[in-house]
Amino acid sequence: MPTFGERIKHAWNAFTSRDPTAPSSSFGMSYSVRPDRFRFTRGTERTIINSIYNRISIDVSSINIVHARLDENGRFVEKIHSGLNDCLTVEANVDQSARAFIQDIAMSMMDEGVIAVVPIDTTINPVQSASYEINSIRVGKIVQWYPRMVKVRAYNDITGKYDELIMPKSSVAIIENPFFSVMNEPNSTLKRLIKKLNLLDAIDAQSGAGKLDMIIQLPYVIKTEQRKKEAEKRSKDIEMQLEASKYGIAYIDGTEKITQLNRSVDNQILNHVEYLTNLLYSQLGISEEVFKGTADEKTMLNYYNRVVEPILSAVTDEMNRKFLTKTARTQGQSIYFFRDPFKLVPVNEIAEIADKMTRNEILTSNEIRAAIGFKPSDDPKADELQNSNMYYDYPYEDNSYNTGGIIQNE
Fold first, then answer.
1. How many Cβ atoms from other residues are within 10 Å of residue 385's Cβ?
2. pLDDT digits (tens, 9 = 90+) for 203-212
3. What ranges do the domains of the chain cover?
4. Which of residues 90 and 352 earns the better pLDDT score?
5. What is the mean pLDDT of residues 259-263?
6. Within 13 Å of residue 290, how many CA atoms lie on the same side as its CB?
7. What does DSSP assign to residue 27?
8. SS3 for 197?
9. Nearest-angstrom CA–CA distance, 65 and 317
């Protein structure tokens, strides 16, 4: 155990033990906001589309994606400890955790339509060899398409700027939104909804701008230039009276007449917005209860199967195709995703499900305990697939026999 003097000697604090002479410019470019953070395209961030993207991306990032080994029947066997698995489960790059990276993929894909997932740090140049280890990875925007190459704009964590890279299509995962025709086509339902929402915002801003919107009827005919100048002078005079008055009061002549125009007019835009919103929900397979958090288990299951699963399949299929060689896929390696089935189960139903799973020898007791957050049991029976209601007659390692729950020694 180190002495008090040794602890003082080797103690270090991030605030007090730094070099005060080091200029901040030596660390690279600096920003007041996070420069690598994803930002929506213009017009989307001010609408309800932002909340739709955010909800779907959070649900997509909550699914576990791993670099796995499968058996000959395509069943999960084990996780593979690799750099790619660390990027998918722990840390994708110096700025993003694995979950933030998956959420970035989903949000960028839905907003852009097509994105590129670029390996940044690799053991070997991907252009020279396909057998390389991925140590960090980022989401990039495709700015130019070529027959065999793509130009990708991605954040450079060394310079602190966005740089453009020309990469071969075989070494970057090009992921297309499976709902491209609904979300990203120029005249798609979502684009039409965004236009209507922006138009509704413009009308609301105009109605709340503080304008009076009134017409003044003067007691003479305005046909000559002189009469027009007199009318403009009269209008400015009323404006100055209203602006200078403490309570916004002005006077007019007894022969003048004012007509107010700022009465409500139904332009059907709000009805169009409601129609397009419901149409978008139906085309995506989403119900309003999902966003409110009041959806039942069947509704959430339908949402996961029709929305979340296609996005995850698009991501993992492209990563399988680009980041795993043909030899690796032949050996059973795969980018695999799976969802915890107990997340949507109420507490009062967990006991019944656990009983059915263990009784039908689908899961062991320790696997059930791990799924609900309990520590594994030390009992050897907790790691065995067996029905506790059945009688068994086989020896344990200590030469004891199990006869229906009663342990007998030879």
1. 12
2. 666 665 556 6
3. 189-270, 342-410
4. 90
5. 63
6. 24
7. G
8. helix
9. 12
